[in-house]
């Protein structure tokens, strides 16, 4: 009788340990999945700095004074914006 209750207690403890391990694994897997999804989301979204620079380039290329068909890249566009800002044209 005592052996049977000890066996049941040991069995219950063993099942509880397995359940806790499984729960821990699930939580770790969920965190990994959330991190991957967050990384994918960050990669797909442009940063605010990139967006601001892109808007500056679009704005400067839309500006008739600056855009006389000579804007080649981002650096040149920003140079033209500075030149225009300081009145060096």
Instruction: State the order of secondary-structure elements, H for helix, E for strand.
Output: HHH
How big is the Rg? 31 Å
Task: Please tell me what the overall shape is.
Answer: rod-shaped
Count every beta strand, where a strand is a DSSP E run of 2 or more residues. Answer: 0
Instruction: State the end-to-end CA separation.
Output: 101 Å
**Average residue pLDDT:** 72
* Uncertain stretches: none
> Structural class of the secondary elements?
mainly alpha
How much β-strand is present in the residues?
under 5%
Helix content: over 70%
Number of domains: 2
Count every helix, treating DSSP H or I runs of 4 or more residues as helices. 3
The largest sheet, given as strand count, sense and whether it forms a barrel, is: none
Features of the shown structure:
89 residues; mainly alpha; 2 domains; 3 helices; 79% helix; rod-shaped
Summarize, please:
This protein has three helices and no strands. By secondary structure, it is mostly helical. The model has no long low-confidence stretch (mean pLDDT 72).
Topology at a glance:
Blueprint: H1 2-44, H2 48-62, H3 74-85
Helix pairs in contact: 2-3
């Amino acid at each position: 009788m005592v052996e049977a209750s000890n066996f049941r207690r040991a069995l219950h403890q063993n099942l509880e340990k397995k359940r806790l391990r499984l729960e821990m694994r699930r939580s770790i897997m969920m965190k990994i999945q959330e991190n991957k999804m967050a990384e994918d989301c960050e990669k797909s979204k442009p940063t605010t700095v990139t967006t601001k620079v892109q808007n500056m380039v679009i704005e400067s290329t839309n500006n008739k004074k600056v855009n006389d068909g000579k804007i080649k890249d981002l650096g040149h566009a920003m140079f033209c914006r500075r030149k225009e800002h300081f009145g060096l044209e």
